[in-house]
Amino acid sequence: MQNGVCRLFLQGGRPMQQLFKIGEVARLYGINIRTLRYYDEIGLLVPVYVDADTHYRYYSSEQFEQLNTIRYLRTQGVPLSEIAVHLRRREPARILDMLRSQQALVEEQCRQLEQTRARLAARVAQIEDALRPELLDRVRIEPRPLRLAAVLRRALRAGDDLELPLRHLERSAHLSPSFFLGKVGLTLSREQFLAGSWQTYDSLFCLVEPGEDPDQDTLQTLPAGPWAMLRFSGTHQDAPNHYPLLRAELERLGRPPVGDAVEFTLVDYGLTEDPGQFVTEIQVPIAPA
């Protein structure tokens, strides 16, 4: 025995094969001994010889190709159970099917990761925008694309706790739990907006992002086109104090609302413990110029 290498001999002194102790194989391949022991336990890579006295495991050089296959397929994310099936009956068609299946899985994972990346980018941009003090307390008119929302129709008042209705919306629309900040809004009807009745809301909604698949019966669209917006420090409870400024500005511009107003909380306890940093925005679709 030298350097963890053992030779077995047939009668007559002719070498049968060269064997390597488990530690030597682990060093050669840069893998953990525990991994090789686990492969032995599940029957994936069984030593060709185990010393009856020392219980040392020995592997043959002929098994290196088998270990190469295991390591390659693991880097491709193929489960050990499928690798075991392949090793029991190695055929080109079988491994081709396995790799095609894994390719489809990776492509789906990439699609999901891209959706996650896009959501993160949108959320970062949204929070950065919400922290711009120069946008507070002034009316802006900006175009908005068509937006899809899952809606819970329920009368709510400014200052109501929205957590319970939000859980109802989550369940009824089959929304997955997510970071709702900037996605959840309240709806104030056009008629209430014009009448100056700014204390009661008609519904609670959550914007739907790409990749989400809520219950179709809960869906409603926020129209594309120009929207008038007024951002202020505070929460929905403070919104009635800011509607007069927005309505007066639209009257001055001669651009009346053409749909319901919505309110979004942009900064709340999800981002800060300081209520003085809370930010909410009123948005209302208006007639083209």
Please provide a written account of the structure.
The protein is an alpha+beta fold and 289 residues long. It has helices spanning 22-29, 33-41, 64-75, 80-88, 92-130, 163-172, 190-195, 243-253; strands spanning 5-9, 15-21, 49-50, 57-60, 139-144, 147-157, 184-188, 200-207, 219-222, 225-233, 261-267, 279-285. The model is unreliable at 9-14 (pLDDT under 50).
Question: What is the CATH class name of the largest domain?
Answer: Alpha Beta
**Low-confidence segments, ≥5 residues, pLDDT <50?**
9-14
CATH superfamily grouping of the largest domain: Regulatory factor, effector binding domain
Give the averaged pLDDT, no decimals.
89
Total beta strand runs: 12
Can you tell me the CATH topology of the largest domain? Multidrug-efflux Transporter 1 Regulator Bmrr, Chain A
Shape: elongated
What class, by secondary structure content?
alpha+beta
Give the helix tally: 8
Strand content: 25-35%
- What CATH architecture of the largest domain would you give? Alpha-Beta Barrel
The percent range for helix content is 25-40%
Radius of gyration: 32 Å
Strand arrangement in the largest pleated sheet:
5-10-12-11-7-8-6-9
Secondary-structure element string: EEHHEEHHHEEHEHEEEHEE
The largest β sheet comes out as: 8 strands, antiparallel
Q: Please, how many domains?
A: 3
Distance between the ends:
91 Å
